[in-house]
Amino acid sequence: METFPILPPPATESPTPWNWARKNLFSTWYNSILTVVCLIIAFQTIKGIIVWATTKAQWRVLEANLPLFFAGRFPSESYWRLWIVTAIIALLGGVTWGNIQRQERLWSPPLLIILGAAVVGAVISPIDLTSRLYLLGIIIAAAATYAIGRQINPKIMDWMPAIWVLSFPIVLWLIKGGLGLTEVSTNDWGGLVLTLFLAVISIVLSFPLGVLLALGRQSSLPVVRLLSTLYIEIIRGLPLIGILFLGQVMLQLFLPPEYPKLDRVIRAIAGLTLFSAAYLAENVRGGLQAVPRGQIEAARSIGLNTPLLTILIVLPQALRIVIPAIGGQFIGLFMDTSLLSLFGMLELIGISRAVLANPSYIGRYAEVYIFVGIIYWIFCYSMSLASRKIERTLGVGQR
Predict the structure, then answer these.
(1) pLDDT (tens place) for every residue of the chain, 399 residues total
(2) CA–CA separation, 54 and 75 (whole Å)
(3) Which of 59, 108, 128, 271 could pair with 244 in a Cys bridge, judged by C-beta atoms 3.0 to 4.6 Å apart?
């Protein structure tokens, strides 16, 4: 019987940074040259940015116009209402996120870095002392509710969507006014407040509409299927700027003179919602087609009718499959709000253009648009993180 020699286990290198760099960055001579060239380019680029930011940039344009960027022309004596709105959102968001993260480590390094950066940013921000204290209090309260949310029974958290919905009338009352509060016209809404309002409402409305359109396009009823298909294909064949133009400019021309003029914020939300719903419907339709046919037949075999089959079996699986696409659609919708600046709405981009039109700040494009870009990135990246967390929780792509 032939015997084979016993070989020692292969030698392994200790996972030090140098070993990793030698394996991944300097494995061959051409990889070494490419790594060195990239490091030189990166160093020069970062050096140039730091030199410009510390010696040439004039950040006073941001310090002087910070309230405009965040609240537009909202009356300064009513800023306390916006602080209450921020606190409501932060507290509910902390509880919700804490409960989602209940299986994870309490204070992970990334979370601690984000929390520390938020505290430092609040301390050094160029705002008055009172606003700085408000901001610090909201950050601390959000961190506390995050810790509390981890301890709440998940069954109790089933009521959280209803609480979010019930908070909306309170938020709208605080921003809009009325019923004892001074009313603030939507013409005075602006900056980040208007951007978030437009994006959040449009996302909330476009999701159910898109799902209904997707189901309608899959319907066995010819009229429903035809109308849904026509709507989706017509809207998807038009640019968003055209739909917004029809809503902001042309709609009033087709209405009778005695008909009350629709608020421009409502018209903007309608345009964004109708446009996004058509694209969302196609994403959901892709998920519906990916549901295995055998599950549908099995559900019918146990006596489920069509509505229950759709709600309990088909739709949850379809939405789970297309979570990445839906997340991308919502991020795109958030950024699409910037197009409304072309129609005189002073959201973030509109406020930026108004600030740059001031003769005192002519030419400060880089400072303003870098600041606005950072704001957009923070919110878009947060939405991306939330989407990926939902994917991991539901096991998308894993089972």
Answers:
(1) 556 666 666 655 566 777 777 777 788 888 888 988 999 999 999 999 899 888 888 888 888 888 889 988 899 888 899 999 999 999 998 888 888 777 777 777 777 888 888 888 888 877 778 888 888 999 899 889 988 888 888 788 788 888 998 999 999 999 998 888 889 988 889 899 999 999 999 999 999 999 999 999 988 889 999 999 999 999 999 999 999 988 888 777 777 777 777 888 989 999 999 999 999 999 999 988 888 888 778 877 887 788 888 888 888 888 888 998 999 999 999 999 999 998 888 899 999 999 998 888 888 888 899 999 999 998 999 899 888 888 887 776 665
(2) 33
(3) 271
Which residue type occupies 394?
L
- CA distance linking residue 22 with residue 5, whole number of Å: 32
Would you say 192 and 375 are in contact if contact means Cβ atoms under 8 Å apart?
yes
For 26, the token pair is 């300097």
The residue count of the chain comes to 399
Return d(Cα 256, Cα 97) in angstroms, integer: 48
**pTM recorded for the entire structure:** 0.85
Handedness of CA 132, 133, 136, 142 (dihedral sign): negative
**Residue indicated by tokens 């941001």:** 62
Query: Each residue of 143-159: b (16+ CB within 10 Å) or e?
Result: bebbeebbebeeeebee
